Amino acid sequence: MNSTEELQSKINNAKSLDFGTIITETIEMFKQVWTKGLLVVLLIAISAVCISVLFTVIGLVPKTDASIFTDGITWETFTSFYSLNAIYSIPQTIIVSALTLAFVGAFYRICYQMVTEKNEEDDYFYFFKNGYFTKVLMLAIIYTAIATVAQLLFFIPYIYAFVPLSYFAVVLADNPQLSEMDIVKVSFALGNKKWLISFGTMFIAGILGMLGIIACFIGVFVTISIVYLPAFLIYKEVVGFDNVSEIDQIGME
């Protein structure tokens, strides 16, 4: 297990990464884990739909007044509608974020087991057990708070914050012993250090993931899990895993 200081030291001293290599490894790894990724995406989608239905039934669906657009869309009406929607969605966003972090964290553990050649049973509900879900819920609250503030500041701050937030699940998966704030600190340290290559590879992976739409839209459930892999591979190259061979630990120039 790594301490926060060890993780931050590795991040600060990380070698530069090659964009093309990360994309290539993302595609190759996706070929190996797409079935596992499909199951995770389905679990997240089903959970999100169930939460949405539940909030609708109990009357907690975000209510925003679309009538403000009666006289046309202006910058003022748009920002008002956008801000109110982001604020009113907070309770639902926290729950969906918690479930997403738990499932994606479990997916990263499965990827980790594959990379380190550990013969363990795939456990998609790992972070719902072992006393971890309270930590996941706190991370979801922090995630939602940061994302909401970034959304209220509009496009550029949200795009910037998206990268560090994307590392929450992978840092949690490899270091579940860390406190919530330490996971946040490490995620932002890694996201800031490798922001450009993270954003670039995630953007390309997102485009590749959306190719599933070609297959009557439903195919996107099969392909979209590729978007989770750049964060995992960048973390692997920068921080490494305790049981990965020395060759795998070598950073790319």
3D architecture notes:
By secondary structure, the chain is mostly helical. It has one domain (4-240). Helix content is 69%, strand content 0%. The protein is built from twelve helices and no strands. α2 crosses α9, α5 (133-152) packs antiparallel against α6 (155-166) and α9 packs antiparallel against α11 (229-238). It starts with a helix and ends with a helix.
List the SSEs and their pairings.
Elements: H1 4-12, H2 19-57, H3 75-88, H4 90-115, H5 133-152, H6 155-166, H7 168-174, H8 180-193, H9 195-210, H10 220-223, H11 229-238, H12 246-249
Helix pairs in contact: 1-8, 2-4, 2-9, 2-11, 4-5, 4-7, 5-6, 5-8, 6-8, 9-11
Structural class: mainly alpha
Proportion of residues in extended strands:
under 5%
N-to-C SSE series? Answer: HHHHHHHHHHHH
Roughly how many Å is the radius of gyration? 19 Å
Q: Please give the largest β-sheet.
A: none
Tally of DSSP helical segments: 12
Task: Return the average pLDDT rounded to an integer.
Answer: 86
Which bin fits the share of residues in helices?
55-70%
Low-confidence stretches: 243-253
- End-to-end distance, in Å? 26 Å
Gross geometry: globular
**How many E strands?**
0
Q: Give the tally of structural domains.
A: 1
